[in-house]
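Q: How would the C-alpha cells look for this protein?
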Amino acid sequence: MGFDGTLPHTDVLFMNHADRRPARPAHDPGRGVITLPNPQSLTTSIRATAQVFEDPQSVALLARIRQIAPSEANVLIIGETGTGKELVARHVHALSHRHGQPFLAVNCGAFSENLVESELFGHEKGAFTGAFDAKPGWFEAANGGTLFLDEIGDLPLHIQVKLLRVLQEREVVRLGARKAIPINVRLIAATNVKLEEAVAAGHFREDLYYRLRVALLTLPALRDRPGDIIPLAHYFIDEYRRRLGYSKISILPEAEQKLLSHAWPGNIRELENIIHHALLICKDNLVRQEDIHLPLSLPFAQRALSRLPDAPASGASGQERLRAVLNELFEAHHDHLFELIEEAVIRSAYDYCHHNQVQAARILGVSRNVIRSRLIKIGAISALK
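A: Here is the predicted structure in C-alpha cell form.
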C-alpha cells in the first residue's frame, strides 16, 4: 500500500442497523489512500499517518497536487496540525520526476536555535565547540531530491535570511566554510501558522514568504471535509484490526453518525486514536456508538467565550460577562467542563499570540512550560517542538 492510490480488499464492513447484515464494504478496491512509511512506529506522534481523497474538497486538492507535482516549483503547504501535510508533501515528491531520489522530512521546530544553521546547511570541522568533524546539512543530504521543512514558521529570522539566499542562489555555505556548495533540491515547506499574520507581526520575512509560496496547497481541516471521515475511519479500522489480530470488525451506522457529528480539532490523528481505542474496547467484533469515546466539545466553549468582547448595554464588567458565559456553559450540562474551558482558554491565547508560546504564557500568567505541556496534551503542537 503506498502512493499508487490502490487498496487491497478489506474485511471491514458496514452494518445495517435493522438486521445487522453487512451493507457494503468499508473500502472499495481501488479507492485512493496515501500513508506514511512504517505508520506502526508513529503511534505516539501527532502526525496524520493516512490520507484519503473522497470529499469534494479533497478531490480538488488531489487534482491540484497532480497539477503542480511535475514542476520544479517550491511548494508551501498550509494546514492545521494532523491534517496530513507531510503525507501531501510525500505525494508531491512521488508524482515528480525526483521520485527516485531522496525525500527528507525535517521539523524546524525540533532544532535548538544555536544548532539550526548547522543542521540545515552543515558545518566544517572546528566551526564551533564540539564540531570535531565536518558534517553536511539537510540540504546537501537531499541533493537531487526533495527537502520537506515542516513548521517553517518556527525558523529564527537570521536563519530565514540564509534560507532565502539558498533558494535564490541554489547553493549552501557550511558554517565555518568560505566555499559554496551547489545543490539541486526541491523545497516543500509546511506550517500550521498563518504566515501572512506572522509577516505582518514581523516574525517572518515577506520576501521568503513569497519565495516559498510559488505553489500553494491549503489542506482543509477534517471537519471541513466530512466526506473523508468515514473512509478514513474504515481504513484505520482495517489497519488496527490487522495489528490486533482480529479476523473481522464491523461498525454500526449510529457509531458512524457519532463520528460525523464531531468537530475533530485534532484532525486525522485524533480520528485514528479514537478508532484505535474503539477496537480495543469493542465486543463481538462490532463497533457500537458507546465504543466511540469522543473528547470534549471544545467548539461549544470557544463559541461561548468568543462572545465576551460584546459588552451588554448595561456596561457590565469583563468579569461579569465571563460569569454570564460560564453560567451558560453550566446550564448546558457538559461532562468534564473544567477541561473543556481550560482547553478553550489555552487555544484562544495561543491563537491570539500568533502561536507564540512565551507571549501566550505571559498573558495567562503561567510559565511557558505549562503552556507547552497543555498544547502538547490537546494536540496543538508536537512534543518535539
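Residues 13-22+225-291 form a domain with the Helicase, Ruva Protein; domain 3 fold (CATH 1.10.8.60).

The chain has three domains: 13-22+225-291, 56-221, 298-377.

Upvote if useful.
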